[in-house]
Design goal:
CATH architecture of the largest domain in chain A: 3-Layer(aba) Sandwich
Distance between the termini of chain B: 43 Å
Order of helices and strands of chain A: EEEHEEHEHHHEHEHEEHEHEEHEH
Helix content of chain A: 25-40%
CATH topology of the largest domain in chain A: Rossmann fold
Helix content of chain B: over 70%
Number of helices of chain B: 21
Oligomer: heterodimer
Largest interface: A-B, 51 and 40 residues
Order of helices and strands of chain B: HHHHHHHHHHHHHHHHHHHHH
Strand content of chain B: under 5%
Number of helices of chain A: 11
Radius of gyration of chain B: 28 Å
Radius of gyration of chain A: 24 Å
Largest sheet of chain B: none
Structural class of chain B: mainly alpha
Shape of chain A: elongated
Chain lengths: ~325, ~550
């Protein structure tokens, strides 16, 4: 079977500034139509590796590929296939939204009807059609992000790199952005997106990569990473009497760990499947503990992230 | 170009455009598709910017005010046209070039350049787009003042050709200054350096503008000193314009090379332009020698040419010898192509040989022209007998100094990472020390007074003293010293030539399959038939 060509590939990528290894031996692949979430604290190396992919910086060692083209040797071919949305972008004075997008459409070589179609599509997709004549400097943060997303997709690239697209957005704008990213992936685009808001990435990403201090600590689907790094399920139980005794009883069990008491609430990790959880509940009731509530869930991405990064979030 | 973009045109609307103005608008828009996108964007910005509005309004007001004042006081046509010139010169020689500089520098400071650089525009299009925008602004200013210029012609007393020539050269000067400004904007990304460069650039603009306006334009208008009926006037103008054109071309190519991506070939285009410079220079050198029959002309031109190749050689020997795989994909392959075109490849070794060979050709042409001229009885001046020796030793000194500099730079590159500034400084230091060290040693032992009789082996590295001796006396009176200089220079040249073999040995790399596939998609017509060599130096991949 022929292995599909990954749309994004980082191959032993290093970026060293003086004594600092901003990116330290990072490798991963993203296939066509996937959304890859890039997670890491500030200064972890997300933006540096994204800038290398966007051909704005060069790796010290290693190489990165977009649709099979090297960012070092064929940046012109990479640029044709790639849309980049930086976390912060400058704008031109005296230019409105339509003129801004029109300029980039021309800069990407779109002419005539093709350009008009691209403009119509992008303005409709990002909801900028009502703001066409508004000067960019008067736009809200959310609208600026939409404009920047529109700019990055004006030439219909197959790969989109979005650096912190949700930063500074209100909840509604975040939800809208999430929907747009899913729509782009559904349309066959490969998306590499970084964010601090981990729940957001968990919902939209097919795969995630956790990076800290330049090193990629984990990659895979959210479920795989949760299984790999947090095999225990979290259980929350409300006990109406003898809470301390229950905690003591639980702590003595081999399949329970990390027991925490918070008033009537007990939180602990349990190693076992749903059936074994049910058996545990039964044992608790048989031991005459007054269990009023018992719920279990997998560890959240935040928990996994903290676990993987050893809690050294800056 | 300024069509309404608020609602992007849909296809049916475009087809249904009726009426003269709608059709005209459509045609203009289609024409606008062919313009550089940066020109379109900057024109839109400029039309809305306060700076342009204020400058343009002030220009009109000053033009009208000067017309009114000039008519009231009954000024002479020459004075009135000089007033108009000043009204035009300030925006053209200061505001437009400085705006061009700021336009590119601001893109780099504000972070918009990064977004621009990853579009389909290459670095050359970015630079020429900015230059095109500057030209458009110049044309707008010219058109605003053209009625006033026409008015002065009606007053008589001033030659229209003089006025047109002044306006033309002001345009050329403005264009050159804008190109230099764009080049200056590409030199650094750091804000502190940009501030320093902007101050220096602004001062240079004011100085050049003042010298041109006060010293040349006024004299041209006042004395009507140009003889337009003499064909040589036009040839001289052609020479000046070709010089400016070659300079502007080099500046644009250099600016584009500064901002292109790292793996791109930055050297070859620059070397092609240098070769063009060489061709133009040699052509004009011979033309004026034949025309004027003065041997001094050959000597002066040879010295300026030597300075040019020393400077460009200093820059080229500062290049790194590492070729990116991208560059290696397009290296010449056949024996003939490698012999002829290898010297255009990036690298310090090829750069050294390129500079030294071109300098040799320039000096040899001068010597041949001088010898032929002398045979035909033309004056070669007092140095006629020593011109060939002078040229030979000038070449040897430059080959030796560039060679030593190149060896030092190559050694330093093993331990340090640096750009082109340090190599240039190393070459300057060598050239200065070459004169200073022997003089200091001589002065230390014999006193700081120098006569021709003091010349000795100690001064072998003192190029200034040695060339002066050759010019006055020839090489015969110090055969041993000049023999040592010749042997030393040839040795340094040979060492550098062999060191350049590493650059020459680079061979073409196969184009990756993915790139070939992409080329097939973009240019299917090129792959319809099996590729055949188009010339003796073209080989199959």
């Amino acid at each position: 079977m022929i292995r599909p060509q990954p749309m994004i590939e980082l191959r032993r990528l290093f970026r060293i500034f003086g004594d600092t290894r901003a990116v330290d031996d990072v490798s991963f692949e993203v296939n066509a139509g996937q959304v890859f979430g890039y997670i890491g604290p500030n200064g972890a190396g997300k933006t540096t590796s994204m800038r290398i992919l966007a051909t704005l910086d060069l790796p010290t060692f290693g190489d990165a590929f977009v649709d099979g083209f090297s960012v070092i040797n064929d940046p012109d071919r990479v640029r044709r296939r790639l849309g980049f949305m930086p976390d912060d972008f400058g704008t031109y004075p005296y230019v409105n939204c339509a003129e801004y997008l029109d300029f980039y459409a021309r800069a990407y070589g779109l002419v005539g009807r093709e350009r008009h179609r691209a403009l119509r599509h992008v303005m409709g997709f990002t909801g900028l059609d009502r703001m066409a004549e508004k000067p960019i400097r008067g736009l809200s943060k959310g609208m600026k992000q939409r404009l920047c997303l529109g700019r990055s997709m004006i030439h219909d690239p197959s790969v989109l790199i979005l650096d912190e697209p949700a930063a500074g957005l209100d909840p509604r704008a975040r939800i809208e952005l999430r929907v747009m990213i899913r729509e782009l992936a559904a349309g066959g685009k490969t998306v590499l997106v970084s964010s601090h808001i981990l729940t957001e990435l968990a919902e939209i990403c097919d795969q995630i990569g956790i990076i800290e201090q330049g090193r990629l600590l984990a990659t895979g689907s959210v479920a795989d990473i949760q299984k790999q790094f947090a095999p225990h399920r979290q259980i929350r139980a409300r006990v109406l009497d003898r809470v301390a005794d229950v905690a003591q009883w639980l702590s003595q069990r081999d399949d329970v760990s990390d027991v925490r008491v918070d008033g009537e609430l007990l939180r602990f990790s349990h190693e076992g499947n749903r059936l074994q959880e049910a058996a545990l509940l039964k044992e608790m009731v048989q031991a005459d503990f007054v269990v009023a509530e018992f719920a279990s869930h997998e560890k959240s991405l935040e928990d996994v992230f903290l676990h993987v990064t050893q809690g050294y979030v800056q | 170009m300024t069509s309404d973009l608020s609602v992007p045109r849909d296809d049916a609307q475009a087809d249904a455009a009726t009426g003269v103005w709608s059709r005209m608008d459509l045609y203009l828009e289609r024409a606008g598709e062919w313009l550089n996108p940066i020109l379109v964007k900057e024109s839109r910005q400029a039309l809305k910017s306060k700076q342009f509005t204020i400058t343009f309004a002030l220009l009109l007001l000053c033009g009208w005010g000067w017309s009114f004042l000039g008519t009231m006081v009954g000024g002479r046509a020459v004075e009135i046209v000089y007033g108009y010139y000043w009204v035009l010169a300030i925006p053209l020689l200061v505001i437009v070039p400085f705006s061009a500089y700021r336009s590119l520098a601001a893109e780099r400071e504000d972070g918009t350049y990064e977004l621009l650089s990853i579009t389909g525009l290459n670095s050359r299009q970015i630079v020429t787009g900015k230059l095109g925008s500057a030209i458009l602004q110049m044309l707008v200013y010219y058109s605003a003042l053209s009625p006033c210029i026409a008015f002065t012609y009606l007053l008589r007393g001033v030659s229209i050709l003089s006025v047109l020539l002044i306006l033309f050269y002001t345009f050329v000067l403005s264009l050159s200054a804008s190109a230099v400004g764009l080049f200056a904007a590409t030199l650094t990304k750091h804000r502190n350096w940009q501030v320093l460069i902007s101050v220096v650039y602004l001062c240079a603009l004011l100085l050049v503008g003042w010298i041109w306006s006060e010293e040349l334009v006024w004299d041209l208008l006042r004395y009507e000193s140009i003889r337009f009926d003499n064909p040589e006037t036009w040839v001289a103008n052609l020479a000046i314009v070709s010089g400016f054109g070659a300079g502007i071309l080099m500046t644009i190519v250099a600016a584009a090379a500064n901002i292109t991506f790292a793996s791109d070939n930055r050297a070859t285009r620059l070397r092609i332009v240098m070769l063009l410079h060489q061709g133009l220079y040699v052509g004009w050198m011979i033309y004026w020698y034949v025309k004027e029959q003065h041997g001094e002309w050959l000597l002066v031109m040879s010295c300026f040419g030597a300075a040019y190749w020393t400077l460009t050689g200093a820059l080229m020997t500062g290049e790194t010898a590492e070729l990116s795989p991208r560059v290696k994909r397009s290296l010449p392959q056949s024996l003939l192509a490698r012999m002829l075109f290898t010297w255009f490849n990036p690298g310090a070794g090829t750069g050294y040989v390129f500079a030294v060979i071109n300098l040799g050709v320039l000096l040899a042409v001068g010597v041949i022209a001088g010898t032929v001229g002398k045979t035909l009885g033309r004056s070669m001046g007092y140095f006629a007998d020593h011109y060939a020796w002078f040229s030979l030793f000038l070449w040897m000194y430059i080959a030796a100094y560039l060679g030593v500099g190149r060896i030092i730079i190559a050694a330093l590159r093993r331990f340090l990472h640096f750009g082109l500034l340090l190599p240039v400084l190393i070459h300057i230091m060598l050239i200065v020390l070459g004169v200073a060290i022997p003089m200091i040693i001589h002065g230390w032992y014999y006193g700081f007074e120098f006569y021709e009789r003091d010349y000795s082996l100690l001064h072998a590295m003192n190029w200034a003293f040695s060339l002066g001796i050759i010019m006055d006396e020839g090489v015969e009176i110090y055969p041993f010293t000049f023999g040592v200089i010749a042997i030393g220079s040839v040795l340094i040249f040979v060492v550098n030539y062999f060191l350049a073999i590493r650059d020459v040995e680079q061979v073409r790399l196969a184009t990756p399959q993915r790139v070939q596939e992409d080329d097939r998609e973009i240019h299917p017509e090129r792959f319809l038939e099996p590729r055949k060599p188009k010339s003796p130096w073209d080989e199959d991949d």
